[in-house]
Specification:
Elements (H helix, E strand, L loop, with lengths): L2 E4 L8 H10 L4 E4 L1 E2 L2 E2 L5 H13 L3 E5 L12 H17 L4 E4 L15 H14 L6 E5 L9 H11 L4 E6 H6 L4 H8 L3 E6 L1 E3 L4 E3 L8 H10 L5 E4 L5 E2 L4 E2 L1 H18 L8
Parallel strand pairs: 1-2, 1-12, 2-5, 5-6, 6-7, 7-8, 8-9, 9-12
Antiparallel strand pairs: 3-4, 10-11, 13-14
Length: 277
């Protein structure tokens, strides 16, 4: 059975509302990105303790630290960003989260080709993987617009070059569609590396972000193949049905419910067992 997670900050900045809606929807785990309009990397000690306690009281957990690590220009100073990465690792241990979401850097200036900086991207990724090599956590790279790992070729380059069980892939349907690629074409090559799945769909006729199954992501077919192939990880709702920004998106409680029900419908139609459905 697949486990259901969600970027609860898309519901509301308020922790109580995040927990209430997730429990109502049968979502067992947060993809922890924001509370009280603070990014996860900026939580103070008191807020960290409160979130951990209240999630435990609600019978919930943290699937992933939804960090923005790697969402900076490749020529920005390394050490301050690496120090931020260390906070993400500390948070994963604090919340007992098995995964940390990361990205693979923007070019120095908008419109430039980040592929010209491939060697620096790989060097930085190796440093992160080396840092966690003895820890029980996995870095999952999300394909994202304008970063090095935006499209299939570079995503595969990352996976094959770093070549570590501590560095895996977070498959995002909608982001591939926005990059002009078809998830159905990319899935076979990335399936062996995929340790996390984000649920976001896009209708390519007008590039509108839509609930799962209403776009061109072939979400049902891919989830069915993933399940048949042994995937038993999280599917994480990141619907962006109200707005989508570079660092986060929003849906609100009602649209988040629409997104959850759409995913359940897709899973029923494709005979994919989903926890909480």
């Amino acid at each position: 059975m697949l486990k259901l997670a969600g970027f609860a900050d898309e519901i509301s900045p308020d922790l109580s509302e995040q927990i209430r809606v997730c429990r109502e929807l049968g979502i067992s785990h947060f993809e922890l990105r924001g509370v009280n309009n603070l990014n996860v990397l900026d939580f103070g000690p008191a807020l960290r303790r409160e979130i951990r306690m209240r999630l435990a009281d609600a019978g919930m957990g943290v699937a992933s630290i939804g960090s923005p690590i790697g969402k900076v220009r490749i020529n920005e100073p390394w050490q301050p960003h690496f120090d931020r990465f260390k906070i993400a690792v500390e948070l994963a241990q604090f919340f007992n989260a098995p995964l940390i979401r990361i990205f693979s850097y923007y070019p120095p200036e908008k419109g430039q080709d980040i592929r010209a900086h491939r060697d620096e991207v790989m060097q930085r990724m190796r440093a992160k993987v080396d840092y966690i090599r003895n820890l029980d956590v996995v870095l999952v790279h999300e394909n994202e617009r304008e970063i090095y790992g935006e499209r299939l070729a570079e995503c595969l380059d990352l996976m094959r070059t770093i070549d570590s069980p501590r560095f895996r892939f977070a498959f995002d349907f909608g982001n591939f569609l926005q990059a002009g690629e078809r998830p159905a074409d990319n899935w076979p090559a990335l399936k062996p590396y995929t340790a996390h799945i984000h649920i976001k769909d896009v209708r390519t006729s007008d590039m509108k972000i839509v609930p799962a199954g209403e776009g061109d992501g072939h979400i049902g077919a891919i989830l069915a193949d993933a399940y048949r192939s042994g995937y038993r990880g999280f599917v994480s709702l990141e619907p962006h049905l109200k707005s989508a920004g570079r660092m986060s998106g929003t849906s609100g409680a009602e649209l988040f419910k629409v997104a959850a029900e759409a995913l359940r419908k897709v899973c029923r139609e494709w005979n994919v067992p989903l926890a909480g459905a």
